Amino acid sequence: MVDTWLIVGLGNPGPRYAPTRHNIGQMVTDELARRRGETFREHRAGARVVETWLRPGSDKLVLAKPNSFMNVSGTPVAALARFYSVTPERTVIVHDELDIPFDALRLKTGGGHGGHNGVRDVARALGTPDFPRVRVGVGRPPGRQDPADWVLSPFGKDERDTLPVLVSDAADAVELLVGEGLLAAQQKHHAPR
Fold first, then answer.
1. pLDDT tens digits for 114-130?
2. What is the SS3 string spanning the chain?
3. Does residue 95 carry a catalytic annotation?
4. Catalytic annotation, pick one of 22, 43, 116, 189
5. Which of 54, 93, 105, 116 could bond to 58 as cystine, CB 3.0-4.6 Å?
């Protein structure tokens, strides 16, 4: 039997936010779609989606980018989960994480939201915090810069040089999580480079 996984890249809509730290989750879903030669299309749940496969004959993947702003991501995520009959255990949220250094990944299921309003809203809408997360490190802002301003700013030049590798690694982590499970993905992606 084929299982369906919902892979959601959190971010903010529009070109103004596309290159920002807060949109790294959507950059990862873009990479997953690119690997499969697919293009996102509008879905009535308030998101852009790609329906594809992990690999031919294996689990179905629904890649999604909500059209809502980050802080209200839960409504489209819950609507997509209902539409595709996907449980929270198979709803993977890919998002930026201030408490992880830039160019590092951490994966987990459940736990708190760590002050991330998008994750908080998804947990509220799904009725549980028990969903897998691929947390992509963007690091803390320098000095006294407001974290909200930091995540809404574009990556710096040095970060942009490394960003394609980080996005590719995060896409690999999603594929490994779906294909072999959380522990296998953690063992590979939590190790230092």
1. 878 899 999 999 999 99
2. CCCEEEEEECCCCCCCCCCEHHHHHHHHHHHHHHHCCCCCEEECCCEEEEEEECCCCCCEEEEEEECCCHHHCHHHHHHHHHHCCCCHHHEEEEEEECCCCCCCEEEEECCCCCCCHHHHHHHHHHCCCCCEEEEEECCCCCCCCCHHHHHCCECCHHHHHHHHHHHHHHHHHHHHHHHHCHHHHHHHHCCCC
3. no
4. 22
5. 54
